[in-house]
Design a protein that fits this description.
By secondary structure, the chain is mainly alpha-helical. It has helices at residues 58-82, 87-97, 104-122, 126-146, 158-171, 176-195, 222-229, 236-249, 255-259, 293-299, 317-330, 340-352, 357-364, 369-407, and strands at residues 5-11, 22-30, 33-43, 48-49, 54-55, 266-268, 274-279, 286-290.
Length: 408
């Protein structure tokens, strides 16, 4: 015989948090026996409809609907597998499924699991990959400074955060930018714990970030680009990565824009000049790029007719990154080579050729010309360095001439 099963949702208007919200509770009734548990969902008292057991905010109410469905599915599963069920058994099962971590590194591992699943869904692992590095820095700090495998959340203090900054800068030799990102990851984990009501407040919220260094846009020189163009590879993956780097060096398209480039993005003017017109994945700003003959030649080697498939058969970002990095090593470039350097190379080539800032902004899909002006600064710095080298050479030549005269 099937048990009588009911769910009742309610709030306690007398227990409101400082942010003005209160917890939504669930009372489970099975065969006249009851058990109460927190849903982990919060709403403002004025948004609660007690008669319907609903929340006015659609997003939060969606969470409540999924929670209600989850309890019902769990009830059916237990009843099917065990043949008997009680309110307490159902409650304990739900709590066991939703048990939350109470230590710092365990909280980080849970968040990494979520980010990894998200990376598969969105087709990009960059955020997940970086977060793994930040989590490892936190692990090293706890192990070396406290001699512990993990740190209870309740033991974290403001001094913990300040000492972590020092550890990152002095012991790990992190840059200011990386130190800020590691601190951001720590804050993220602590604010998650606050949201879950494991902590009352973030203990390091007053620990300040350091002022960021101005961004350094890495690009390769004209001679390095020529070497790259003159060096095909027998390995198919490396050759595809080489072509994509060259293509982006003459179009300014980032990886995501090349990855999602379809034949309909390629057009042709009345005089037969090909161009790419496409909204950038990062800014959603349209880029208009007349194709350089080199880029046009590479484009002709791939799909330009079937609009159900992308133009280039690109692998995921991580694989392409590895191949581009290998190319840099093979050609013995001074710095590590990354695909995004091709976009910055495009910007510096344009500014060096005397193209206007406004045209560069349009071709690169910048939201404003401020981003494009960075390339002008790069070129100015290069001119200043070249002039310094010239002055140093003239100085050495002048010193040599004086020595010759004195020896006579």
């Amino acid at each position: 015989m099937r048990s009588t099963f009911k769910q009742l949702y309610y709030i306690n208007r007398n227990k409101v948090k400082t942010d003005g919200t209160t917890a939504v509770w669930c009372r489970i009734s099975i065969d006249g026996k009851q058990a109460v548990l927190s849903t982990g969902i919060y709403c403002r008292p004025d948004d609660w409809n007690g008669r319907k057991g609903e929340i006015r905010d659609a997003r939060t109410n969606g969470l409540l609907t999924r929670y209600r469905l989850h309890i019902e599915n769990t009830y059916n599963t237990i009843l099917k597998e065990q043949g008997v069920i009680s309110a307490e058994l159902l409650k304990n099962t739900i709590i066991a499924e939703s048990s939350l971590p109470t230590t710092l590194l365990e909280t980080g591992r849970h968040e990494l699991e979520r980010l990894e699943k998200r990376s598969v869904k969105i087709g990009s692992r960059s955020t997940y990959r970086q977060s793994v590095l930040f989590q490892d820095c936190l692990r090293q700090y706890i192990e070396s400074s406290y001699g512990m495998a993990d740190m209870p959340l309740e033991d974290i203090t403001e001094q913990f955060g300040r000492d972590y900054k020092t550890f990152l800068l002095k012991e790990l030799g992190c840059s200011t930018d990386k130190m800020n990102k590691c601190l951001c990851w720590l804050n993220r984990l602590l604010y998650l714990s606050v949201d879950r009501e494991i902590l009352r407040a973030n203990p390091i919220e007053d620990v300040e970030y350091e002022k960021k260094n101005p961004p350094r846009l890495k690009h390769i020189s004209r001679n390095e680009l020529k070497r790259l163009m003159a060096t095909p590879f027998e390995d198919k993956k490396m050759e595809l990565a080489r072509r994509m780097f060259i293509f982006s060096s003459f179009t300014g398209l980032a990886y995501v824009d090349v990855y999602k480039l379809y034949p309909h993005h390629v057009g042709e003017t009345a005089d037969g000049r090909k161009f790419i017109r496409k909204k950038r994945g990062k800014t959603n700003v349209e880029a208009f790029i007349p194709l350089h003959p080199v880029a046009e030649r590479i484009l002709s080697l791939y799909n330009t007719t079937d609009d159900t498939k992308p133009v280039f058969p690109l692998p995921i970002r991580d694989i392409l990154w590895h191949e581009v990095h290998s190319i840099g090593n093979a050609l013995e470039f001074e710095e590590n080579l990354s695909h995004h350097q091709s976009r910055h190379t495009f910007g510096t080539l344009l500014i060096s050729a005397g193209i206007s800032i406004e045209s560069i902004a349009k071709m690169m899909g910048h939201t404003n010309i401020t981003s494009s002006q960075i390339y002008a600064k790069i070129t100015d710095d290069k001119i200043s360095k070249d002039m310094d080298k010239l002055m140093e050479r003239r100085k050495l030549e002048s010193t040599g001439e004086k020595r010759k005269k004195s020896s006579k």
